[in-house]
Design brief:
Helices cover 78% and strands 0% of the residues. It is mainly α. It has one domain. The radius of gyration is 18 Å and the shape is globular.
Length: 142
């Protein structure tokens, strides 16, 4: 349990939170511009992270990528132009909701689905990764 508290202490450092917030704003701006993808936002951010400590650098890349993927829903909902390829699947439905007077609801559903999908993916990666490591250890693979 001590490691958990040490990890929380590393993450909630004011400098790390500032870097995560700045990277999230950067991802929001890049993702909201049609044609600029989350991968491009990450590629633009990587050279800056070379000069950071590991914890804020990883936090910056993760928050930038997650925010850029969600931000692609903004032009998809309001302009019918998907900001990222991930937003193309439901552009018509979100734009129709916005046209019917519910743009806030459409973007709220987008952020809720994006956040819940990210959490579910993280949990699944944790479970599958742990089991894969156990199988690898039992098979004595290098």
């Amino acid at each position: 349990m001590d490691n958990f508290y040490l990890a929380l202490n590393l993450i909630f450092d004011p400098y790390v939170l500032l870097i995560i917030g700045a990277a999230a704003v950067f991802g929001l701006v890049v993702g909201a511009i049609p044609g600029l993808t989350a991968t491009m936002a990450t590629a633009l951010l990587i050279p800056i992270t070379f000069f950071m400590d590991p914890v804020p650098a990883i936090g910056a890349v993760i928050s930038c990528s997650a925010m850029a993927i969600f931000a692609g829903d903004i032009p998809a909902t309001l302009l019918r132009i998907p900001g990222t390829p991930a937003s193309a699947a439901y552009t018509d439905e979100a734009f129709t909701m916005a046209g019917n007077g519910f743009p806030e609801r459409a973007l709220g559903i987008s952020v809720l689905c994006s956040a819940s999908g990210g959490i579910a993916g993280s949990i699944a990666a944790r479970i599958v990764g742990t089991r894969a490591c156990r199988v690898r250890a039992e098979l004595h693979l290098a």
